[in-house]
Amino acid sequence: AKSYLATLPFVEGNKIAVMGSGTGGWATLYSVNKGTSFQERGNPFRAAVALYPYCHLPEFESDAPVLILIGEFSGMWPAEKCLDIANTKGAASDVTLKIYPGTYMHFDFEEGEKIWHVEDRQVKYNPEAATDAIARVKNFLSKNLK
């Protein structure tokens, strides 16, 4: 997808970021992890944003600056695992982690509770966390896609 986007006339090919939530957040981290083998490593994403990802990625080292936003109580996606990524020694790029206290998975999606009611994972909208996350993502992308 990134290679295709880079060919479009309205896209600056060297300023493409990747963002995902939940399993997509894990895929986002996976896509910028240098330990992941991709055919085209020479032109990595410029930045990565992962919302409540599953953070179990041993040997994480990023090609790009990473922003991870996760609720303290993200159920089967433990926020503590994201500390391992944020505290990785020798990472090529910065990892910024924000854990929202008292907050659950899908904190940014108002209708999430109606859609994703799963017993082992609490889903709850948190307007304060959602507003903060939007501001953090905008600032992060503005800084890293110059």
Feature tags:
single chain; 146 residues; alpha/beta; 19% strand; globular
Summarize the structure.
The protein has helices at 2-7, 23-32, 79-86, 112-115, 127-144; strands at 17-21, 47-51, 66-73, 95-104. It is α/β, with parallel strands linked by helices and 146 residues long. Strands 1-2-3-4 form a four-stranded parallel sheet, sandwiched between helices.
Please give a structural write-up.
The protein has 146 residues and is α/β, with parallel strands linked by helices. Helix content is 32%, strand content 19%. The protein has helices spanning 2-7, 23-32, 79-86, 112-115, 127-144, and strands at 17-21, 47-51, 66-73, 95-104. The chain has a 4-stranded parallel beta sheet with strand order 1-2-3-4, sandwiched between helices. Strand 3, helix 3 (79-86) and strand 4 form a beta-alpha-beta unit. It is globular. It starts with a helix and ends with a helix.
Task: Show the helix and strand layout.
Layout: H1 2-7, E1 17-21, H2 23-32, E2 47-51, E3 66-73, H3 79-86, E4 95-104, H4 112-115, H5 127-144
Parallel strand pairs: 1-2, 2-3, 3-4
Oligomer: single chain
How many beta strands in the DSSP annotation?
4
What kind of sheet is the major sheet? Answer: 4 strands, parallel
**Series of secondary-structure elements, N-terminal to C-terminal:** HEHEEHEHH
Number of helices: 5
